[in-house]
Known about the structure:
This protein is mainly α. It has helices at about 5-10, 10-30, 30-40, 40-70, 80-105, 115-140, 140-145, 150-165, 170-185, 190-215. It has one domain (about 10-220): Methane Monooxygenase Hydroxylase, Chain G, domain 1. It contains 10 helices and no strands.
Amino acid sequence: xxxxxxxxxxxxxxxxxxxxxxxxxxxxxxxxxxxxxxxxxxxxxxxxxxxxxxxxxxxxxxxxxxxxxxxxxxxxxxxxxxxxxxxxxxxxxxxxxxxxxxxxxxxxxxxxxxxxxxxxxxxxxxxxxxxxxxxxxxxxxxxxxxxxxxxxxxxxxxxxxxxxxxxxxxxxxxxxxxxxxxxxxxxxxxxxxxxxxxxxxxxxxxxxxxxxxxxxxxxxxxxxx
Length: 225
């Protein structure tokens, strides 16, 4: 017989939502971080960078806690492997944000204004995809209650499709922005150009992992999608 304490312990879905909150706190700090870089506000940049590092660590701790809970979880409405893959993809978004914060701290990374605006526009496109993934996670309770079927599941599946369609546009934009970084006038110093290309690559990866978060739920749907 399963002990009552085992049945009443925290749901993996609840932990997953807490993990999502930490991850998307990280992404929400990126616009501030880029503004401080653009304005040369070094001290404020350091403050936001340290916040990102702390949040990423908290997200890692929740990911590890979820792993522990999944090892003994029962009666889940989806496969444990699928749930674990979702938290891994979600955690990778926070990892990318941490990488970006670190890359921007290596040296003065201020860009010429037209190029800075282009990069911020690209950042906003990526963040919209992360917001869609966050929106999908916000409906996790509804999916759990409905057993991944019915109207709620259909609504979420449409969000997942929209996220996938938006993600398809990110790679061409990455190439476009990277080309502008390499060809801007006056030219950037080689080290700065390389660092910015890495930042753009991490942003692209954030969008990719956001899509994986959404797609991770697809095998559990009991509707035709």
